[in-house]
Amino acid sequence: MLILGAGPAGLTLGNLLHASGIDCVVLERATRPQVQARSRAGFLAANTVRILERHGLAEGLRLRGREHATCEFRTEDGRFRLDYGSLGRGERHTVHPQHELVTDLLTHYLDRGGRAYFGTEALTVRDADGTRPTVTVREADGRTGTWRSRYVAGCDGRHGAARRSIPPGAVRRHHLDHGLSWLGLLAEAPPSLDAVAYAVHRRGFAGHMARTPEVTRYYLQCERGTSPDAWSEDRIWDELALRMRAAEYGPLRRGRIAHRAVVDLASDVLEPLRHGALLLAGDAASLLSPSAAKGANLAVLEAELLAGALIDDLRHGRPEGLAGYSARCLAHIWRAQEFSQWMLRLLHGAPGPADESSFHDALRRSRLASLATSRSCQDWFAEHYVGV
Ligand code: RFL
Q1: For the chain, what is the domain count?
Q2: Does any domain span residue 381?
Q3: Residues 236-259: pLDDT tens digits?
Q4: Which residues constitute the domain of residue 271?
Q5: Distance from the alpha carbon of residue 163 to the mean position of ligand 1, in angstroms
Q6: Cα–Cα 20 to 30 A to 323, which of 82, 134, 201, 331?
Q7: Ligand 1 centroid to 385 CA: how many Å?
Q8: Would 153 be classed as within a structural domain?
Q9: Of all atoms in ligand 1, which is nearest to the CA of residue 294?
């Protein structure tokens, strides 16, 4: 079994297959230190924690993860908090930065004899419609090589070889460009408040999310095409303070901006998540806007479903699970897409002609007012915000 990519999807899958005695190899383009340093997600859903616990993979997050269950909205109409841990199904997030989760999963896999090759970039997957797909790779020393296996799991993200190798028309790609961009920032500063904060401002959205006691993620909506380095640190902090209404609600704790990247908000779903012997999971299968923090959680869920189906097929000769893998995942993916889209419309007006955007802006205010005042709306929000 070949697994392309050592992110949350590939490493969860690798651990589950290896624990079932299935011979598998993870091929990863980056070096091990690069993989373990990539900061992205931080909020793990309760279901993700349950999956990791079920398979003995939750030790790190139990030791270092912190429960989180409050979010705050700041708008032109004031601010309100939702203690979502006491709404909906009463579930909470666990804050555990993605690079720590990846490090936990990788260490667990390698310590138990799992095989992984770093600096090994998959170039193409060929013959996926046969029973012996071939992966051509560029190895760490620059030479090309080939790997063959019964199945290939494409867990190599949105720009990986798995997606590229699917012939045009073989699967359908549903795609939506939201026309919005966020400057994603990691600040070497403690969180400024004890809640996730979403600030809606006429100058654009701003977000605040704890990562660790020393590091906080912030987002600033920016113009499409903005270079990540275009904003000075002072401008970033001033703009965050303005949009988050720090003068009214309390100052932000400033620190060095350690990482910055512009994210063009887009979503897509491939359907089905399979081309013959090539099976997709994680961002390779579906890309979500980061508005609802679902991507890493879906990656873990899909990896568990794929592992179960592969184990049934390879160990017990039951291929039905693999046949149903795509449909099972797509049901979860579309629910997550729908909620991410709803969140996006909660936090932004819509780009477009002035009259349309003022209409969307009024809808956004009304949506926020419902969330602030309606218990059933809050229960719905909590269930979907923490769930996958
Ligand atoms: P990953 O993590 O991208 O891992 C893919 C791995 O494949 C490797 N690779 C290749 N290897 C071999 N050959 C090739 N040709 C290869 N091409 C790529 C890469 O080096 C990498 O190691 O995909 P995976 O496993 O599917 O996991 C998906 C998540 O990483 C992603 O959905 C989340 O980070 C999304 N996301 C968030 N999700 C959450 O659930 N909660 C959050 O709070 C959250 N915050 C975020 C996010 C994504 C962000 N970015 C990237 C837009 C915040 C940000 C800023």
Answers
A1: 1
A2: no
A3: 999 999 999 999 999 999 999 999
A4: 2-69+91-175+267-343
A5: 14
A6: 134
A7: 20
A8: yes
A9: 40
